[in-house]
Design goal:
Blueprint lengths: L2 H13 L18 H15 L5 H6 L3 H12 L1
Helix pairs in contact: 1-2
Length: 75
Amino acid sequence: MNLNDKVLAIMREVFGIEEISTDVSQKNCERWDSLRHLTLASELEDAFDIELEPEEIAEMTDFSRVVEKLNEKLS
């Protein structure tokens, strides 16, 4: 499973949405609230064995920014 697929799988679980695409963001996903945002960050930290700073978590407002932050942490 590649990075994008893994992130989408985590987002599906956290947001409780079966169909989710790479254009998902806080603006177009009503289930992406503040509590689920923190849950998403925690799940990503566990799945990728990383630690995200509060500023990084705040910047992860859509799928592409989540992947961008993960790529920075994993490189």
